[in-house]
Amino acid sequence: MPTRSILTGIGGYLPEKIVTNDELAARVDTSDQWIRERTGIRQRHLAGPHETAAFMGTKAAQAALADAGAGPDDVDVILVATSTPDQAFPATALRIQAALGVTKGFGFDLAAACAGFIYALSVADGMIRVGQARGVLVIGSEVYSRIMNWQDRTTCVLFGDGAGAVFLQAGEGEGNDARGVLSTHLHAQGTLGDILYVDGAVGRHDLPGTLVMNGKEVFRQAVTRLAGAVDEALAANGLVYNDIDWLVPHQANLRIIEAMGKRLSLPPERVVITVDRHANTSAASVPLALAEAYADGRIKRGDLVLMEALGGGLTWGSALVRM
Ligand code: UT7
User: Which residue of 41, 85, 105, 262 is most buried, as measured by CB atoms within 10 A?
Assistant: First the structure.
């Protein structure tokens, strides 16, 4: 029987502080109505000084391990998808390794912006399938509030902070009905790097960097690229729209999410939506949405879940998981 990556635990963490659209409207020239109508966002969680990517990632990872009934000794690898690490190095993954009390294996950070969790899940799945690891923590943790231009109303209203994590463990299975990661598909198009980027980094002391986006062009790319990714995932597994139980999409804009749900002919109640309360938490958005729908009992063991995301790079991809 082939080795499969089984998703045995899921967890999330959101900063304590909630900021409403009206509160933002007091700071920049925007309105609750504009933000709701164009994005579906009502509020976002913003990190306090102590709520770093490592801090929030640790909390989400602890919740995922507890959910799996696993402990530090079960963790071989920690992968953290983040564009907002605490430090250039050590990797956020290793700060989390220390905080969790994991003393073996290895870990590293992976930068693929909003598609980071899908990328990390794909890398983790590969490691498990080839026998390099038996337990992998896959974490998306982001503090985009630290890379916002708080004077730019076209971006600062769109993002929030948070972390989500899953624990993948080696198991056995074959076919679409067996539990585990059925497929992941990754894509990138570097020529589109200038439609969504951070204009600096720790290596540029003159430019700490804030996020810049051509929202209209990213929107256009998201709708076409994600539709392609969804079709690709189904075709690769010999599945049709009807087979999907849940769509857990990247949470950037309610209009993009609804377009994807319609494309899959999924009733709205089968599409997990958190963008209204979390805004766009980049690499944390998919695992946070998964954590919420799993914790409240909507997503159950045996369900077929399709995840997709697109972000700066341009990066995009999908993951199909039998829970
Ligand atoms: O996570 C990575 C993936 N990211 C995404 O998928 C984001 C994709 N893009 C989007 O979600 C949308 O393009 C936005 C929500 C960013 C913008 O929505 P839009 O419908 O494309 O609006 P727009 O950029 O065309 O702006 C329309 C108007 C402009 O005014 P004029 O030129 O028509 O007078 C903007 O200046 O809305 C204005 N505007 C705002 N008004 C009030 C832009 N931002 C704001 C704001 N409040 N916050």
Answer: 41
